[in-house]
């Protein structure tokens, strides 16, 4: 399973480099099912892996002037606050056993995986659905809707803190549709927001998490190689064409997790 896990770790990075999101939605399932990491610990590991990978990926967009700092700040402040509250208070407060139905007990780990699967299904819909407002050549005047941006940033921070997903599939539609950013700028800005949110969430997890640093650095390094490959491929292939295919894969994975955590338990 380790070899499959390492190959999947490369795919995490490739996805982030190619379409600016989606990679983080694979990280927790890869850690849980291929490396047998506990689901709660996997959410913390995911924050570090996705955060460091996104930092590296955002550099190439910085060089091309495809990162909007103002937008990142507007999203980042409420997101960081939500990540802190979630990792410091909400996650530790969830009991190890939530409730039982007959012989089946919903544990903290099962709950997080089920939440993750629902999010994967939602994310797959966003990826499969054809974007009607993503014309790269269309120059639009950026209009920051601060209340909506604050709410969106808070929600992304909650998602990031709770299940370790960077939320690129939520951030990019908001940047394109709410803030009128071109797609490539939205991807670059999304990677910066993801890196800030994820690494902040990981730092907030350190005081109640035992970290296997060697394992974490190995997986992160492999994912970083993946994002460099994905960034290179993105100059040759239109990521928007691959996004629906990846969306169908995420949908199947989400359904599999629901079955695995309920029927096959």
Question: What would a concise description of this structure say?
Answer:
With 265 residues, this protein is mainly α. It contains ten helices and two strands; from the N terminus they run ααααββαααααα. The chain has one domain.
Describe this entry's structure for a reader.
The protein has 265 residues and is mainly α. It has one domain (2-261). The chain contains ten helices and two strands. It has helices at 2-19, 23-34, 39-63, 69-93, 108-128, 146-163, 168-177, 183-205, 213-234, 239-261, and strands at residues 97-101, 104-107. The chain has a two-stranded antiparallel sheet. α1 (2-19) packs antiparallel against α2 (23-34). The two termini are 19 Å apart.
Low-confidence stretches: none
Task: Report the total helices.
Answer: 10
Helix content: over 70%
Multimeric state: single chain
Strand content: under 5%
Number of strands: 2
- In angstroms, what separates the terminal alpha carbons? 19 Å
User: How many domains, as an integer?
Assistant: 1
Indicate the overall shape: globular
Please write out the topology:
Elements: H1 2-19, H2 23-34, H3 39-63, H4 69-93, E1 97-101, E2 104-107, H5 108-128, H6 146-163, H7 168-177, H8 183-205, H9 213-234, H10 239-261
Helix pairs in contact: 1-2, 1-3, 1-9, 2-3, 3-6, 3-8, 3-9, 4-6, 4-8, 5-10, 7-8
Features:
two-stranded antiparallel sheet; mainly alpha; 3% strand; 265 residues; 2 strands; 10 helices
């Amino acid at each position: 399973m380790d070899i499959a896990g390492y190959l999947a770790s490369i795919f995490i990075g490739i996805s982030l480099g190619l379409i600016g999101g989606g990679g983080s939605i694979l990280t927790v399932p890869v850690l849980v099912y291929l490396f047998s990491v506990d689901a709660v610990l996997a959410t913390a590991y995911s924050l570090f892996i996705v955060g460091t990978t996104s930092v590296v990926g955002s550099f190439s967009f910085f060089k091309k002037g495809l990162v909007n700092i103002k937008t990142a700040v507007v999203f980042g402040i409420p997101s960081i606050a939500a990540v802190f509250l979630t990792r410091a208070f909400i996650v530790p407060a969830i009991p190890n056993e939530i409730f039982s139905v007959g012989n089946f007990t919903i544990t903290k780990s099962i709950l997080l995986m089920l939440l993750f699967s629902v999010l994967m299904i939602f994310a797959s819909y966003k990826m499969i659905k054809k974007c009607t407002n993503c014309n790269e050549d269309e120059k639009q005047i950026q209009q920051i809707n601060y209340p909506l941006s604050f709410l969106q940033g808070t929600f992304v921070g909650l998602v990031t803190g709770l299940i370790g997903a960077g939320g690129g599939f939520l951030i990019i539609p908001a940047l394109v549709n709410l803030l009128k950013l071109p797609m490539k700028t939205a991807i670059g800005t999304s990677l910066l927001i993801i890196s800030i949110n994820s690494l902040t969430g990981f730092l907030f997890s350190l005081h109640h998490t035992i970290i296997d640093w060697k394992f974490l650095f190995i997986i992160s390094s492999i994912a970083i190689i993946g994002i460099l490959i994905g960034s290179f491929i993105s100059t040759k292939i239109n990521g928007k064409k691959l996004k629906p295919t990846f969306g169908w894969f995420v949908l199947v994975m989400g359904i599999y997790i629901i079955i695995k955590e309920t029927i096959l338990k």
